[in-house]
Design a protein that fits this description.
single chain, SH3 type barrels, 4 domains, four-stranded antiparallel β-sheet, 13 strands, about 40% helix
């Protein structure tokens, strides 16, 4: 089996050979000849360097590589071209525009991120709302164990974070929780409970309460937002609709009595979209008092905060800045959102939130110093 390396020389595997070929073609704006490829791609050059491998075998290897890459979706073109008016000859080209995904850029509602795209690559503009919707949808796909394109969804999330930078801070700063396996099991149970309309019982650890509470719930819907799963339903303890984070639920049990009979009906006026449109920090157990926070927005981001009805206006300052009050049910996503504003929002109070914000900024700075 020819691998491009004569006896006694370094063996180069097929994957490395493919990567070298792709890198060479992408690095040239104009078509290149077979001879140029033979000289530039190490595996082919080594094969032509002596030993028992003849030139025809190396060329056949290139043809196989080219055909297999095309089968994998790499659009290598065969084109006819001439140099300075000479005779036409066959060449090969891999256009960046056909090979790379578009470069993502944030527009509207904030500063553009990422600057100019590399030469020859298309640009796809995103609004802040589109980024949030795309992130939520990809996160949902990436978190579902049986989804056939789960790895592709994770790859798309990484592209969002790479191209959009701070605009995708919520994605880059939301690691998979340590109890992800337990959350997946709860999702499986709740999906089945929703399908057959069975009540569930569980113990819930609220963010403010000193002790857990036992709940009896008629599940109405599941929501994935801001890197977290939420359960929404009618809580018998409070006799009202409540929102619960799945990673704070313990000892989940689905009612097994009369399994072919539904325990409840979802009211026709229940609208899951009413919860989906909330910010991540606004989702939480509504019977628990939220944290009251005050932020100062610098001008002109203060105008953006006003247009998007973020928080409640408390004070307008002479330089155009504004102070706004927020009801925060979840601190972590709120801090990540503040961080994504790149210093244009300052935490005024409470003191513990201000300290937590400073610690987050320092930890992210240290992370980039370590990887720089």
């Amino acid at each position: 089996m020819v691998d491009g390396s004569p006896p006694g020389k370094t063996r180069i595997g097929k994957l490395q050979r493919w990567l070298d070929l792709i890198a060479f073609l992408v690095g040239h704006r104009y078509p290149v000849t077979v001879d140029q490829i033979m000289e530039a791609v190490p595996a082919y050059a080594l094969g032509l360097g002596g030993g028992d491998v003849d030139e025809e075998s190396v060329r056949r290897m290139f043809e196989r590589d080219k055909d297999e890459l095309r089968e994998h979706g790499i659009p290598i073109e065969t084109v006819a071209f001439s140099v300075q008016g000479g005779d036409q000859e066959a060449g090969y080209r891999l256009a960046r525009r056909d090979f790379y995904l578009p470069y993502l850029r944030l527009i509207g509602g904030g500063p553009r991120s990422g600057g100019a795209a590399p030469r020859g690559i298309d640009i796809l503009d995103f609004s802040p709302d589109e980024v949030r919707t795309t992130y939520d949808a990809l996160s949902l796909a990436a978190a579902w164990p049986s989804f056939p394109l789960r790895e592709e969804a994770r790859s798309a999330l990484r592209k969002l974070a790479f191209d959009l930078g701070p605009a995708a801070a919520e994605a880059t700063l939301t690691p998979e929780p340590q109890d992800a396996g337990q959350v997946r099991e709860r999702l499986r149970q709740l999906h089945e409970a929703l399908r057959i309309r069975k009540r569930v019982r569980f113990r819930y650890h609220g963010i403010h309460r000193g002790r857990p509470t036992d709940r009896d719930l008629a599940p109405y819907g599941l929501l994935f937002q801001g890197g977290r799963w939420y359960l929404i339903g009618h809580d018998a303890l409070r006799d009202d609709l409540r929102v619960f984070r799945l990673d704070r639920i313990e000892t989940l049990e689905v009612n097994k009595k009369a399994q072919k009979t539904a325990d409840y009906d979802v009211p026709p006026d229940f609208d899951l979209d009413a919860y989906r449109n909330r910010r991540p920090w606004e989702l939480g157990a509504e019977d628990e008092p939220p944290l009251e926070a005050r932020l100062r927005f610098r001008f002109p981001v203060s105008l953006w905060a006003e247009r998007n009805a973020l928080g409640r206006l408390i004070e307008e300052e002479k330089d155009g800045a504004s102070v706004r009050r927020f009801a925060v049910h979840q601190v972590d996503p709120f801090l990540r959102w503040i961080l994504s504003l790149g210093g244009d929002a300052e935490v005024l109070d409470p003191p513990e939130l201000r300290r937590a914000h400073v610690q987050l900024v320092e930890s992210v700075a240290a992370l980039y110093e370590d990887t720089g």
